[in-house]
Automatic annotation (TrEMBL):
<dbReference type="GO" id="GO:0006730">
    <property type="term" value="P:one-carbon metabolic process"/>
</dbReference>
<comment type="pathway">
    <text>One-carbon metabolism; tetrahydrofolate interconversion.</text>
</comment>
<dbReference type="GO" id="GO:0005524">
    <property type="term" value="F:ATP binding"/>
</dbReference>
<dbReference type="InterPro" id="IPR000559">
    <property type="entry name" value="Formate_THF_ligase"/>
</dbReference>
<dbReference type="Pfam" id="PF01268">
    <property type="entry name" value="FTHFS"/>
</dbReference>
<keyword id="KW-0547">Nucleotide-binding</keyword>
<dbReference type="GO" id="GO:0004329">
    <property type="term" value="F:formate-tetrahydrofolate ligase activity"/>
</dbReference>
<keyword id="KW-0067">ATP-binding</keyword>
<keyword id="KW-0554">One-carbon metabolism</keyword>
<protein>
    <recommendedName>
        <fullName>formate--tetrahydrofolate ligase</fullName>
        <ecNumber>6.3.4.3</ecNumber>
    </recommendedName>
</protein>
<keyword id="KW-0436">Ligase</keyword>
<dbReference type="InterPro" id="IPR027417">
    <property type="entry name" value="P-loop_NTPase"/>
</dbReference>
Length: 225
């Protein structure tokens, strides 16, 4: 990791098709994963000033080879809406494509472990799943309480397909450690914790936003400390 304010390495500001192609492994995995849901995939390629035509073409060809129905170079950050018309057209075409047969990744009434392992193997390409004693106990408890038919929402680092943020690209063949399993029964899902991961803090019984309002006479926000 580089400290804030560090200039970008020259590899990221000069043409390097080989490096770009290597980095496409992560995108390719995402495209392949999305295709498992039976829907067409459109890839938006955000072009920056230092990106060359050859680099953009490398990303486009990698996306199409992975199964994307379209891959469009976009410049909306610089040109506004005009820079994304091609993307919009590709999305409209994908929405009307006959190549649409949405399906879920798993049947929701499967046992909890089966659903976790389908996600681990199909989405993350893990070789298997390892459960801590705490996770085993929670799975048993939720099953007895009748919550086994809830869908799964994995709590995992966003920086890697694995549980380890340092494993970049498209890692495969690792063992996914589940250290705990928790329930959001009101929202209607179970969330296993994979590796070291922090979860969002819960709201109090009476959230503070009840005390925040807009004064219609002055237009000022009241209730903020």
């Amino acid at each position: 990791m580089y400290p804030a304010g560090t200039p970008l390495h020259h590899d990221y500001t000069t043409e390097n098709v080989e490096l770009v192609t290597k980095g496409c492994a992560n995108m390719e995995r995402h495209v392949q994963n999305l295709r498992k849901y039976g829907v067409p995939v459109v890839v938006a390629i955000n072009q920056f000033a230092s990106d060359s035509a050859a680099e953009m073409e490398a990303v486009k060809q990698a996306a199409l080879a992975a199964g994307a129905s379209a891959a469009v170079v976009c410049n909306h950050h610089g040109l506004g809406g005009a820079g994304a018309t091609g993307l919009a057209e590709a999305v409209v075409e994908a929405c009307s494509s006959p190549d649409r047969a949405f399906r879920f990744l798993y049947e929701v009434d499967l046992p909890i472990k089966d659903k976790i392992e389908i996600i681990a193997k199909e989405m993350y390409h893990a070789a298997g799943v390892e459960y801590s004693p705490e996770a085993e106990a929670q799975i048993e408890k939720y099953t007895k309480m009748g919550f086994a038919n809830l869908p799964i929402c994995m709590a995992k680092t966003q920086y890697s397909f694995s549980h380890d943020a340092t494993k970049k690209g498209a890692p495969s063949g690792f063992i996914l450690p589940i250290r705990d399993v928790r329930a959001s029964v009101g929202a209607g899902f179970l969330y296993p914790l994979a590796g070291t991961i922090m979860t969002m803090p819960g709201l109090p019984t009476r959230p503070c936003f009840y005390d925040i309002d807009l004064d219609p006479e002055t237009g000022k926000i009241v209730g903020l400390s």
